[in-house]
Amino acid sequence: MPIKNYTTKMPVSQSLAKIQQNLVDHGATGFMVEYEKGTGRIEALKFLLDINDNRLSFNLPVDWRAFQEVLKKDNVRRWDEDDYCYRVAWANLRDWVDSQMALFETRMVSLPQIFLPYVETKDGTTLFQKMANNPKLLLE
To answer: Domain coordinates of the chain in residue numbers?
Structure first.
């Protein structure tokens, strides 16, 4: 089965704008982008959400190089085109956010449930990174 969005022509800027608008529509209060050194490509979208009267920062990464390896493994014809891989990775993230917001809108999940792995901790890592580096934290 082909990778989702492998035929997209939507520019990254448009996928990013759609993600941001979707998050704003669901309560995001600010955004920042983090750029990959040397390429000018965005490697993470950071945003703020107020949850239970606390303003939390979230870091949503776009690891397009890992995505490129999947395309290579699956023999997708354009896997070696960086711009193509970057664009398709963003399109998939856009669709993931859309799907998560649909679950939220149906009250099947809460925003914290969706984005908890991506919340930034005091040391700048995400909760997922902290747990991955110290699995014993899950047992506390």
So the answer is: 12-139
